[in-house]
Amino acid sequence: MASRLEEIKADIKAINERHQRYNFRQEEEQGESFQWHRESPLSAENDVVGMEGYEETLLDWLLSEERRDLMISVWGMGGSGKTTIVAKFYNNREVKKYFQCSAWITLSQDFVVENLFKSMIKEFYKAGKDLVLTDIDKMGYDGLVRTIQEYLQQKRYVIVLDDVWSLNFDLWRQIKAAIPSTRNRSAIMVTSRMEEVASLSFGIPNSIHHILYIERLPENKAWELFCRRAFTNVPNQRCPLLLEPTAKDLVRRCKGLPLTIVVLGYLMSSKEKTELEWKKVCQNPNWELINNPRFEREKYILLLRFHDLPYHLKHCFKYCCVFPEDYLIKRKRLIRLWIAEGFVEKIKDKTLEEVADTYLEELVCRSMLQVVKKNHFGRAKSVRLHDLMRELGLSISKGEKFCVSYNRGEGEEVANARRLAMHKCDEDIPRCFDMSKLRSFFVFATETTMSSQSYELPKKFKFLRVLDLQGVPITILPDEIGELFSLRYLNLRETHIKEIPKALGKLRNLLTLDICDTKVEKLPTSAVNLHSLCNLLMYHYDPRRSKSFDFVSGTKVPFDISKLESLQVLASIEADDDIVRTLGNMTQLRRIGITKVKAGPQVWQLCATIQKLNLLRSLFLMSYIGHELNMNYLKHPPPLLQRLTLVGKLQSVPRWFGSLNDLTFLFLKCSILKENPLLKIHALRNLRRLTLSNAYEGNLLHFHPMWFPMLKILRLWNLSQLNKVIIKKGTMPDIEDLWVGGCCMLKMLPQGIEYLSKLKELTLDDMPVEFVEQLREGGRDRPRITHIPQINHYYRISGKMHHESLS
Predict the structure, then answer these.
(1) CA 341 to CA 487: how far, in whole Å?
(2) Coil, helix or strand for 740?
(3) Which residue from 200, 170, 179, 165 is spatially nearest to 82, judged by alpha carbons?
(4) Using CA of residue 542, residue 545, residue 548, residue 550, what is the dihedral sign?
(5) 145: how many CB neighbours lie within 10 A of its CB?
(6) Contact by Cβ (8 Å): 344, 352
């Protein structure tokens, strides 16, 4: 073994010498990995070709004269565009106005009815996190059925069940029991690649059943879609004449399936525009495999796309397969996992997170990942694998022993796996597997898991790098955790753990520790030894207190936090004099959250400390209850600041607000300002999201022309003295979401709201009755809001929150 190690060292040294000799580093920095994009990976996300007629058909069915409920089945091959078509219909402005509530549920192949109902309820209530029933995860079948029936009663609703693989009579009978027949043209839509599901007689009384078959794209539309993807930088997106015969041959082989055309188009867009290079793809001998009737053509084209990925992106793509089917993968979680696994290469002048972000954008741009949600400035917030992509990734991963997903009774592949993801674990984690070879271990909590009382972790994780137990109701983290010397990523978010063992301090290689929303109130003193730690996430968010002052709490740190010199993310800690004084030494910090900040010397010292954090992008400060948060002591804010949250009374609007040129997110809560804050923040040209919650005691907010040119979201909460809002033409030209809540003195709609032509959603929460009545059909202000597709109204009766649509 010693001799072999010496040989490996010699090989590594030789590789490094060749690396420097041939200047590979310069090529990598300038090459495909970071210069591949020619457009934003999100810019063409909703670009659809050849599907316009389907949307018109769905609208015709919806708006027909018959006053009965609708049952619509949409079916076609995998990758034919079923979900895209239904999504365009679902998001259509006229459709949004027509239905009072909606839910989109993507089903796994072996879904549980109770889980479907819980997802449905959460979809209905998603407009406000605080409105979700707190005991929903504890409800049984009968309670869930009653909740849905009560919510949907007298409402016109649309429910989409996406990607249904099977729906037998007994299963449908259970679903149908929860969904009332309203006889007012409510709609249930099902998408499926199975003809027997689409043709199923659903037996809904007084309903009409329509079936929409999604055909393959005709040749001309297939060619148009391919050219849009393959020739994004060519004038008019036209194929060069020299390449046209080869390109058309490639398109014909896609057989009119949009997904495979898009993927092939992106594949060819990265190739040199020469006939020889394109014929290499066309003449690939593996194309002959598709003549086998059992071979799925679309999967082969996806396989071509996978093999064309750079080496580092192949690992990143396969790693996404550890997540369950249709799982929403958070961007930050994914890139931290990639870093922990060593998939992300260090590039000069870039952090590993920035490099990993580029990897994710490339996978999105190449159609290997789908963007599900974006943040306030258009960046991917969560992504998902298309089911065909996931099948491909799992197949490759199993063959390479890269990763294996375990469901009950499917353990034959587990023994040799290097990465194991347990997707169904309703009892204790099985101990029959040999865990000694694992590098990564995931447990994904199902809804039934959440009712379990406690878990014991398997032992012998000798070489483990990643341990992800998010949402699993374990109560104790064993001391053996300290033996995992190679551990780089530990995720205990939303578990029931109350205490972190002292042995945690032995994890000298740990990069990420996530204990958010656990019951841990204090870190052990041994954590001071985690010198490699980059991300320390330990805030506690209480959705039931979202409108209260202390909706977020931090964690106590009983040691000198500045000794963790590698920290880039620290969210959130409880302030004390020692911590505030030493934070200025942590010059690598990009994000920090501090709670319980006291007025006086502690604030002075904190402001002096923040001035030293030149790399800071995100700052969250919450004062101690009743204490003033005087930020005027801060003379020079961090120059790169993008997100700022201040919770606590402000003496005045800080003078330095106007210098925050990169700020995209501003949240002021309980500021109780006498002066109008808009006068000092309107010039923030990059601001995308602004929230004022109990932040201003004045009675007028006046938005002048040219103010907030990039603003997308505006939220005005609990402004108790506000009685008038004026919006001049030319202000907030891009705003899409306006939320007004708890403004008890505001009796009328903001003047000039009709100028906000891009407004997609208006939400009213706990507003005066006379304010709301003016917005109903026939009300005085109704004509001024007809351009807004979705208008929500939340109100309380006997302490219980209710919702209605005013669209």
Answers:
(1) 10
(2) strand
(3) 165
(4) negative
(5) 19
(6) yes
Tokens 């199923």, located at residue: 200
User: Which residues, listed in sequence order, are joined to residue 620 by a DSSP beta bridge?
Assistant: 593, 645
Q: Residues 703-762: pLDDT tens digits?
A: 999 999 999 999 999 998 999 999 999 999 999 999 999 999 998 899 999 999 999 899
Kindly give, in sequence order, each residue whose CB lies less than 8 Å from that of residue 316, ignoring residues fewer than 6 positions away: 338, 343, 359, 360, 363
Residue pair 97/789 in contact by the 8 Å Cβ criterion:
yes
Rounded to whole angstroms, what are the CA distances from 250 to 261, 269, 303?
9, 13, 15
**Phi, psi dihedral angles at 782 (to 5 degrees):** -55, -45
pLDDT by residue (tens digit) across 495-520?
Answer: 999 999 999 999 999 999 999 999 99
**First-last CA distance in the chain:** 72
Distances from the Cα of 128 to the Cαs of 122, 131, 132, 736, in angstroms? 10, 5, 7, 16
Cβ–Cβ < 8 Å for 505, 528: yes
Nearest C-alpha neighbor of 788 from the set 756, 749, 759, 768: 759
Rounded Cα–Cα distance for residues 509 and 487 (Å):
6
CA 279 from chain center: how many Å? 39
Supply 16's token pair: 């490094």
Q: Strands 761-765, 790-797: parallel, antiparallel or unpaired by DSSP?
A: parallel
Cα gap 673→576, rounded to integer Å: 26
Q: Compute the distance between CA of residue 73 and CA of residue 83 in angstroms, rounded to an integer.
A: 12
What are the DSSP calls for 675-693, one per residue? S-THHHHTT-TT--EEEEE
Amino acid at the residue 503: A
Segments in 593-697 forming alpha helices (H): 601-610, 678-681
Considering the entire predicted model, what is its pTM?
Answer: 0.76
Backbone angles phi and psi of 490, in degrees to 5 = -130, 110
- What pairs with residue 203 in β-bridges? none
Q: Which residues contact 5 (CB under 8 A, 6 or more apart)?
A: none
Burial class from Cβ neighbours inside 10 Å (0-12, 13-18, 19+) for residue 16 reads exposed
DSSP-based three-state secondary structure for 318: helix
What is the rounded average pLDDT for all residues in the chain?
82
CB 238 within 8 A of CB 227: yes
Q: Is residue 76 a contact partner of residue 82, using CB atoms and an 8 Å limit?
A: yes
More confident residue, 393 or 738: 738
Q: Would you say residue 132 has pLDDT above 70?
A: no
- The token pair at 60 is 């015709």
Higher pLDDT, 756 or 138: 756
Neighbour tally for 70: CB within 10 Å: 20
Catalogue the E-assigned strands of 425-488: 440-443, 466-468
Q: How far apart are the C-alpha atoms of 205 and 209, rounded to whole Å?
A: 11
Q: ω into residue 73 within 30 of 0, thus cis?
A: no
Write out the E strands in 214-331: 329-330
Structure tokens at 361: 């954008």
β-strands 713-717, 737-741 pairing: parallel
Q: For residue 208, give the 3-state DSSP assignment.
A: strand
List the one residue out of 409, 498, 492, 408 whose CA is nearest residue 457. 492
**Rounded Cα distance, 13 and 16, in Å:** 5
Q: CA-to-CA distance for 340 and 329, rounded, in angstroms?
A: 16
CB 796 within 8 A of CB 768: no
Long-range contacts of 343-350 (CB under 8 A, 24+ apart): 343/312, 343/315, 343/316, 343/319, 344/312, 345/28, 345/312, 347/28, 347/29, 347/34, 348/25, 348/29
Residue 342 CA, chain-centre distance (Å), reads 23
Instruction: Phi first, then psi: give them for residue 602, nearest 5 degrees.
Output: -65, -40
In 3D space, the residue among 213, 196, 199 whose CA is nearest the CA of residue 81 turns out to be: 213
- Spatial strand order of the sheet with 157-162 comes to 101-106, 157-162, 187-192, 69-75, 207-213
Measured between alpha carbons, how far is 206 from 203 in angstroms, rounded to an integer? Answer: 9
pLDDT at 285: 47
